[in-house]
Write a structure and sequence with these properties.
Spore Coat Polysaccharide Biosynthesis Protein SpsA, Chain A, 2 domains, UDP N-Acetylglucosamine Acyltransferase, domain 1, 10 helices, 29 strands, 422 residues, nine-stranded mixed beta sheet, single chain, alpha/beta
Length: 422
């Protein structure tokens, strides 16, 4: 826990966080068929966007805007239900900024930078000294106040949040080449030969999509960018590289502001942008000591809390025992004579007698009927699993009926189930 958590948050009180939550999330396949990636469920009761929003709130930021675009209905509904406690009389602001053709007819958000540029007139009214730009689709805990402090102390034009990754894994990121002072001297998008860190030649600094700007400076750069016909109007592709060349860009290492019990623990950050990554990150939460601590009351993950009864386990007979081992079971679940192992069940899941679940991620209000056997699957919200369905034992049969990844994870939706019954 950062040592200044209980002290007055000087910089955060003068900061606005803008969360970019318009991403399609196409690599999550059918999980983003009706919802944007930031609205995808995670961790038993939360949505992915709750992590960036909770970090901002816990860091002391009380002015937050969320820019939405694609398939935004479920995301907006979640924000209205779960994040409606900000009070204007306390100088708190929580604004949803959907793409609404405010600049000209037919012009939606053209890129991440354009999503902010189109709302400059609104954001000017909040009179924040600093702007923190956040991606709304990553899982992590971070104290943005520490990043703000570095930004001010270094007199940077932009401070870029960076994670340390092995060089061989950095080829899929935007990578920062920095000098010994932390100043960014080059920015390379998905390089074949990532530049190493000055103090660790085996690792590289990859962008987290988190940026801190002085408000006035940011808006000037954005207005210039809107006039550039050759720009893609994106922070990572246009704004940041231009500042690296013509201004002062500084790297902020995630390890210095990651919220964790001790520096010996992993600096946890995950992009759950594929079905395999989504399944793995959720199942990892069932570990005896998971790398992501959801039980830390000093840095809670805020979300919409449904009014549901406690989880219920019934029946105690041989082969018909309502039981769960090494699993997370949310409120409203009924485990009726089913066996659950190393699985994560969201709100309102009903598992019926003689069914078996291993390494299963079941989103809210799933029903697993009798004698179903499921292994290494993700089940979308509201799906009804037929009696006796077996998934995870025959790869060819699984791939024929459902979406099966190369690593063996099966994604099941109601449309896939309905096709089985035709």
């Amino acid at each position: 826990m950062p040592t200044n958590f209980l002290t007055q948050r000087r910089l955060a009180r003068h900061t606005m966080a803008i969360v970019l939550a318009g991403g399609r999330g196409s690599r999550l396949k059918e999980l983003t068929e009706t919802r944007a990636k930031p609205a995808v469920y995670f961790g038993g009761k939360s949505r992915i966007i709750d992590f960036a929003l909770s970090n901002a709130l816990n860091s002391g930021i009380r002015k937050i805007g969320v820019a939405t675009q694609y398939k935004a209905h479920s995301l907006i509904r979640h924000l209205q239900r779960g994040w409606n406690f900000f009070r204007a009389e306390r100088n708190e602001i929580f604004d949803i900024l959907p793409a609404s053709q405010r600049v000209e007819e037919g012009k939606w958000y053209a890129g991440t930078a354009d999503a902010v540029a189109q709302n400059i007139d609104i954001l000017e009214g909040y009179e924040a000294d600093y702007i923190v730009i956040l991606a709304g689709d990553h899982i992590y805990k971070m104290d943005y106040e520490l990043m703000l402090e570095q930004h001010v102390e270094s007199n940077a034009d932009v401070t870029v949040g960076c994670i340390e990754v092995p060089r061989e894994e950095a080829t899929g990121f935007g990578v920062m080449k920095v000098d010994t002072t932390g100043r960014i001297i080059d920015f390379v998008e998905k390089p074949a030969d990532p530049p190493p860190m000055p103090d660790d030649p085996d690792r590289a600094l990859a962008s987290m999509g988190i940026y801190v700007f002085d408000r006035k400076y940011l808006f000037e750069r954005l207005l210039e960018d809107t006039e550039n016909a050759e720009s893609t109007h994106d922070f990572g592709k246009d704004i940041i590289p231009d500042i690296v060349r013509n201004g002062k860009a500084v790297a902020h290492r995630f390890t210095t502001s990651c919220v964790r019990k001790s520096t010996d623990e992993e600096a946890y950050w995950r992009d759950v942008g594929t079905v395999d990554a989504f399944w793995q990150a959720n199942v990892d939460l069932t570990d005896f000591t998971p790398s992501l601590d959801l039980y830390d009351t000093d840095w809670p993950i805020w979300t919409y809390a449904e009014i549901v009864p406690p989880a219920k386990f019934i029946h105690d007979e041989e082969s018909r025992r309502g039981a769960a081992t090494s699993s997370l079971v949310s409120g409203g679940c009924i485990i009726s004579g089913a066996g659950i192992d190393k699985s994560l069940l969201f709100t309102g899941v009903h598992a019926h007698s003689y069914s078996q679940m291993e390494h299963v991620v079941a989103l809210p209000y799933v029903t697993i009927n009798r004698k179903a056997r499921l292994k290494q699957v993700v089940i979308d919200r509201g799906v009804t699993i037929p009696p006796g369905l077996v998934v995870g034992e025959d790869p060819k049969e699984d791939a024929r009926r459902f979406r099966r990844t190369e690593k063996g994870t099966c994604l099941i939706t109601q449309k896939m189930i309905d096709r089985l019954e035709m």
